[in-house]
């Protein structure tokens, strides 16, 4: 098997070694839930996220943030427009290919962690490599590295029930990282955390960004939104980017 | 920096193909090429070892529930194994008894009257000798119950009422017939061909009869009286392997009985032949001709029953009922597993969503839950097999039998558990694979 590491990926046809290919490219992407009545949860929108960017998506409840995440995370297919992930046209993919692309290129972090309660931190992290044919021997080593990366090397064998909320979320982040994704998609990553834990998670995301990870964080919290290089606002399904000077 | 690609008209590529062709060229091209392009991304995989590991982990995370779930299968498979094992054990028991006695025994009946109402008794005077000439015969002889005139009683003294009112049967038997019963003598001996040939008044008593007549020892040369006829008691029989009626009777030579009371009534006389192992069927075919070359149809030889039909007869009835019960337990076990797996699927919706997000395909979810239910079934099957085998051994020990199990039963039983589990898991696993990841993760 190949293509699990950065080098393997570069060899693939629509490879992404190229820094110029955006990680996310929305071209008129929209999603309407069929209903009845049909709900236009995401209006046609344009969005480009480049490699290494840290963007935040803010909006009030029911505005369409999760819908956006589902589309970006290939959990839902858009009903209109074109979505290129790492330059790959996702509309042309068959179901199995979409699933595989999701598993290999996107790391998810959820508000409610979604850790398996009866598995240790390490086992939870290895889960992200089960479906992408990473050899068993390599999984543990990669899981350890990922846990150390999020500062939990010492809690590697703990069950989630024995971890604080912030630690749990960091295990979830380690799980996302272990799959070596090109994009980290976080839906309200601090929604269930107190401010101290939230701070540590946000600091970690900042560090990951600094080391080159592409990160999209969805939040309704303006303070969290501040952490991003760019902030996209979503309201009634309409995505807009207030012109804000982020960098040259 | 702000990147805003030129706005494109909204289109729905999948759901409304009739919409006008997109004006957006750069994309149209790669898309048309798409059928030729191979493998944009490595497909998701799930190794067999991982499936097993996940299934075992899923089973162990709720050990108590898993045990209860497997209980139905344990009972079903256990009953199944116990019944088949007990059947095998008892029929091997029957087989061995059958080999010793029944398989080496032929009875010949006098059916002359059915053919010809004026026929004489069918057995010739030299019947024993004729049969003993056949290969494979060990002992053979004619016997019948003597029909005494009313009021004729068996006593131990010429007159008097020593015996009370109970009747004692008198049996006429040639020496061969007596030997064929394989008697064990308490005292004395059997009468032989010489005594029989000269129609001597000798008798052999069953132990119970001797006790009733008050005869405890042969040293005083006691006699018994049948009516007024005195008979010297030659021997007292302690036990027989065949013809248990001998124990309750006074047995006298055939010739003596004929001299005193005439030939047997039609159909009364029978011949008992004991044979070497395996010879019985052949001898049964030959006997009527050997006895009556002129009228073989006057005699009917009854060979030993075929051991296979005998076993089938035993297996039937009760065992089928129990096997049905085992099947019912299995169905209940399957319903239990189906129910638990369905609950687990609903409980673990979040986990299913997570796995889908991590790249699991619907079929990977199906396989995982099928393996889990299959593992539960197999566990139940293994425990059930162990219990079933223990039951068979315990019963055999108590009854002093040799426990017999067919290897097929022991090998098939856990497989029955596996199949039960997999079948039970089909619906829940299918449901699990249909769960939409976006829906599942919303929780
Ligand atoms: N499966 C669905 N079918 C129909 N309508 C839906 C479905 N899922 C979401 N919606 C609707 O789409 C709109 C956007 O929902 P979404 O979940 O994206 O909001 P959100 O911004 O994530 O809200 P919150 O901050 O509360 O999570 C809402 O009006 C919601 O009711
Ligand atoms: Mg939401």
From TrEMBL, chain A:
Cross-referenced CDD domains: ABC_MJ0796_LolCDE_FtsE
Q: Which GO terms describe its molecular function?
A: ATP binding; ATP hydrolysis activity; transmembrane transporter activity
Q: Which SUPFAM superfamilies match?
A: P-loop containing nucleoside triphosphate hydrolases
What residue spans carry the region label Disordered?
1-20
Highest taxon listed in the record's lineage: Bacteria
Query: InterPro entries, alphabetically?
Result: AAA+_ATPase (IPR003593), ABC_transporter-like_ATP-bd (IPR003439), ABC_transporter-like_CS (IPR017871), ABC_transpr_LolD-like (IPR015854), MacB-like_ATP-bd (IPR017911), P-loop_NTPase (IPR027417)
Q: Which keywords label this protein?
A: ATP-binding, Nucleotide-binding, Transport
Q: Which Pfam family, any one of them, does this sequence belong to?
A: ABC_tran
Coiled-coil stretches are: none
Supply the Gene3D superfamilies for this chain: P-loop containing nucleotide triphosphate hydrolases
Annotated GO CC locations: membrane protein complex; plasma membrane
Keyword ATP-binding annotated: yes
Span of domain ABC transporter: 24-248
Name of this protein: Putative ABC transport system ATP-binding protein
Organism equals Streptomyces nymphaeiformis
UniProtKB/TrEMBL annotation, chain B:
For bias type Basic residues, the affected ranges are: 1-16
Q: What is its main location?
A: membrane
Residue segments, region Disordered: 1-41
MF-aspect GO terms: transmembrane transporter activity
Annotated keywords: Cell membrane, Membrane, Transmembrane, Transmembrane helix
Query: Where would I find the ABC3 transporter permease C-terminal domain in this sequence?
Result: 324-437
Membrane topology term = Multi-pass membrane protein
- Which stretches are transmembrane? 67-88, 321-346, 375-398, 404-427
User: What domain of life is recorded for the organism?
Assistant: Bacteria
Say yes or no: keyword Cell membrane present: yes
- Ranges for domain MacB-like periplasmic core come to 66-286
Q: Where in the cell is it found?
A: Cell membrane
Provide the family line. Belongs to the ABC-4 integral membrane protein family.
Protein name per UniProt: Putative ABC transport system permease protein
